[in-house]
Amino acid sequence: MMKLQCWMTFITLIAGLSGAVFAEVDTLERRGSLGIALQPAAQGIVLSAPPEAAAYQAADITAGAILAEIDGQPVSGWLDLQALTHQLPSGQRVDLTFDVDGERRSVTIEPQPSNPSVVPGADVIYGQVESADGLRIRTVTLVPEISALRSDQGLPGVFYIQGITCQSIDRITGRSHSRSRIFLDLLEAGFVVSFADKPGVGDSDGEACTEGGFDREIRAYQAAAAAFADREDIDASRVYAIGISMGGYQFPLIAEAVDFAGVITWGAGVEPWADYLIGNFRERAIMRPVVSPEQHEAGLRAMRRIVHALIIEGQQPDELRETMPQATALAEQQLGPLEAFAGRALDFHREADQAELWPAWTRYEGELLVLHGEYDWISTASDHAKAAEILNRMRPGSASVELLEGLDHGFTHHDSLEDSFTRLFNGDASDLFHQRAVDWLSELADTMVTAVE
User: Fold this and answer.
1) Which DSSP helix (H) or strand (E) runs through 268?
2) What is the distance between the alpha carbons of residues 247 and 251, in angstroms, rounded to a whole number?
């Protein structure tokens, strides 16, 4: 099995809102940028394009170089990169070390403020809200210049909720990137699109996202979503959401602050977090057995003990390493270091497990479309579908579930389940999710206007 930190792209207790609105003055400074294009690869984090800055060229650092260290801290994977660059201060010197054909080369740069995105045919508005914790949260809102969905009440809007990773999403980089393509497709269809960076990510205030809790994140998203729904150009009766992975898991809690008319979830769940993790381990083993059933059962029982002790009972990793060394070693083979698996702190996982998702879903009054990839083995299809079951028991016909053929958790397409295991997130480019999401939201937005007329 792959480590959880490689496949999780996915919760929380509710706190009151601060009555947040879009700030009249944006006081958040832009974070710094390394000025290079990086991507994960088998050998590490690789420079994917020739750097333009003279400092890199002078050090003879070229495309294909592996980023080894940032200010002396090792970079072994994407989570390390996120932790070390989540809030780079602009103008402060940073030492980078690369492996180039087996040779170590170093360069010192001064990160420059990240440029805002420019989207043809849309206004890109960088704003801020204040969460109930007093944190300034970066928001980005994309407003189409032309919209066939405009009504006398305003434009329909979509609030996008990202997955579990501590990664800034404030850049729209074109259709080659799956998330950007969703934004652009929604804009083209006539929706206003908004999203927010998590606390401690990008320009947002707060301790590092990798150290922050689940509840703090929910409160930040609540503030951003409420401010978006209050915009003067938005039709408050046509505010929708897309929740990806953990974002879909978190949605019903965020919806406590906003009357969303509809939501699309992808690769999410409803079970308590610890139960979800265990169920997912079992499902993946059944889908692709790599050991005997007896060995898997023994491993699963050890994993259950560790997850229960760590997340539910609140024991510390060092305690478990002493009292349950074999089970802990097995768990860390799957999860990585227990102190921060999936790139998030233990507090995040513990608070997520306490989140009352089922009751929150019963209070949601909008429509729901559950979309799940046929080869999405990162999330659990049966658990994901439970949100629709909850809504349909209360309001028959208000929710539906659709399986999208061949797609994995990252929206890429595969011809077989085995291929999805060997090429996770690296299948063939696909628009299946994007097309279905835009079609469903467009029909819902158009129907609601027609109903009012």
Assistant:
1) none
2) 6
Name which of 360, 376, 453 is nearest 420 in CA terms: 376
| Average pLDDT over all residues of the chain | 88
Query: What domains can be seen in the chain, in order of their start residue?
Result: 36-110 (2.30.42.10), 122-271+355-452 (3.40.50.1820), 273-352 (no CATH)
DSSP H or E stretch at residue 22: none
Q: Would you state the structure tokens that stand for residue 355, as one six-digit string?
A: 């989140």
Tell me the range of 58-72, 145-159, 164-178 where mean pLDDT is highest: 145-159
Token duo for residue 21: 């609105």
Q: Are 360 and 253 in contact (CB under 8 A)?
A: yes
> Pseudo-torsion of CA 194, 198, 200, 205, nearest 10°?
50
C-alpha–C-alpha distance, residues 69 and 52, integer Å: 20
Query: CA-to-CA distance for 370 and 389, rounded, in angstroms?
Result: 10
Strand 262-266 and strand 234-244: pairing? parallel
Instruction: Of 282, 196, 173, give the one whose Cα is nearest residue 247.
Output: 196
Is residue 192 a contact partner of residue 238, using CB atoms and an 8 Å limit?
A: no
Rounded-to-10 torsion of CA 36, 211, 271, 379: 20
